Amino acid sequence: MTISRCFSLLSPLLSLLVLLTIVRATDNKPANNLVDKICKQTSGYSFCVTSLYSDSRTPEADQYTLAFISVGLAYIHANTSQHHISELLSNGSSHDHADQQRLQRCSRDYSNAVSALAMAYNDLNSETFFELADLAGEAARSASDCQAAFKGIPSPPLANRNHDLMGLCEICVAVAKLFTGLLF
Ligand SMILES: *[C@@H]1O[C@H](CO)[C@@H](O)[C@H](O)[C@H]1NC(C)=O
Ligand SMILES: *[C@@H]1O[C@H](CO)[C@@H](O)[C@H](O)[C@H]1NC(C)=O
Question: What angle do CA 11, 28, 52 make, to 5 degrees?
């Protein structure tokens, strides 16, 4: 076989390889298949992907690391929000008594969410996974209760925080399913 004959046989194969490489590179599904699987279970796929990939461990993470990441994200969010609410209350930015009461309800809600998520994190440290979904559900209900406190009020002050905490808890619930065998 001459060199040039050999090339003419190889070139279609090479073109195909180049094409496949391009197709793979432009395929914008998350690099970690578990993330795709988890996020498909949530109501906000791109919020879920963006949140999980905000942690540099995510591309290589197994389900255990993803459990720590997701609970950590929800915990930090709840903790930060709780401090934000305390500031709003102590700054006395609202002179409306009803508003103060709503904020106080939210403060209790977020304190409850922080406790539930701290417990979930401790569970993970002792390799306990069966309570994760319940505890994340508890934190999500707290955010939802805070949201309910401002029902009917135009532009409620904590709407984005409540929405994001519910979204982060939903990710925790989806991750929890990996441990119970409900998600394949
Ligand atoms: C919770 O938030 C406060 C204020 O933002 C911060 O000082 C504290 O370190 C946080 N706790 C944890 C465990 O991250
Ligand atoms: C509360 O007041 C402090 C000091 O005036 C200010 O820096 C902070 O941003 C305020 N916090 C909120 C949540 O309004």
Answer: 145
Half-sphere exposure of 159 (CA within 13 A, CB side): 8
The rounded Å distance from CA 89 to ligand 2 centre is 10
Tell me how far the alpha carbon of residue 108 lies from the centroid of ligand 1, in angstroms: 17
Closest CA to 116 of 142, 147, 148: 142
Torsion of CA 106, 108, 110, 112, to 10 degrees: -150
What residue spans of the chain are helical by DSSP H?
3-26, 33-39, 45-53, 63-91, 97-125, 132-149, 159-180
pTM here is: 0.81
Which of 54, 57, 59, 34 lies closest to 168, judged by CA? 54
* 86 Cβ below 6 A of ligand 1: no
For residues 63 and 128, give the distance between their C-alpha atoms in angstroms, rounded to a whole number.
13
The ligand 1 atom at the shortest distance from the C-alpha of residue 75 is: 14
Give the tens place of pLDDT for each residue, 52-71: 999 999 999 999 999 999 99
